[in-house]
Design brief:
Elements: H1 3-8, E1 16-19, E2 23-27, E3 37-41, H2 53-73, E4 78-82, E5 93-98, H3 115-128
Helix pairs in contact: 2-3
Length: about 130
C-alpha cells in the first residue's frame, strides 16, 4: 500500500477536504499557495492515463467539484489543474488556486503553515464542497 492509499484509508493523518467512495481530496503538506489540494483515486493506480475512460471521467468530475469549492473558499482568477509527480507511484491531481501562473510554479518556495492554518483551510474548502 503506497502513502496516498494509506492517507485515503486514514492510516496516515491528512487535512481532508472532500471524499467519496472512489476519490479523496486533501491539502498538500508542501503547498505552493493556500488551498493547494491533491485529489487521488482510492484505487492504487500509478499513471493517470492508465485509468479506464469512465473512471477517469468520474475522477475529473470529482476534481471539478473540489476546484469549484476551492475557488469559493479562496477567490482567485482560476484553479490550476496539474498532473505532475514521479515521487509517489499513485495518480494525483494538484488543484492550485492562482492569481498568476507563477502561483503554479513548482520550483518556487513552498509555504510553511501551522497545523491550525491547515485545519482552517481544509474546513473552508470542505464547507464549500
Amino acid at each position: 500500500m503506497d502513502i496516498f492509499s494509506k492517507i485515503a484509508a486514514g492510516e496516515i493523518p491528512s487535512y481532508k477536504v472532500a471524499e467519496n467512495d472512489e476519490f479523496y481530496a486533501f491539502l498538500d503538506i508542501n503547498p505552493l499557495v493556500k488551498g493547494h489540494t491533491l485529489v487521488i483515486p482510492r484505487r492504487e493506480v500509478d499513471y493517470f492515463f492508465d485509468m479506464a475512460d469512465d473512471e477517469l471521467a468520474r475522477y475529473q468530475q470529482f476534481a471539478k467539484r473540489v476546484a469549484v469549492a476551492i475557488k469559493k473558499a479562496f477567490p482567485c482568477r482560476k484553479v490550476a489543474q496539474v498532473v505532475l509527480g514521479l515521487e509517489v507511484p499513485h495518480a494525483h491531481i494538484h488543484l492550485i488556486p492562482m492569481q498568476t501562473e507563477a502561483d503554479a510554479d513548482f520550483r518556487r518556495e513552498k509555504l510553511q503553515l501551522t497545523e491550525q492554518e491547515f485545519c482552517d483551510i481544509a474546513q473552508r474548502i470542505g464547507q464549500q464542497f
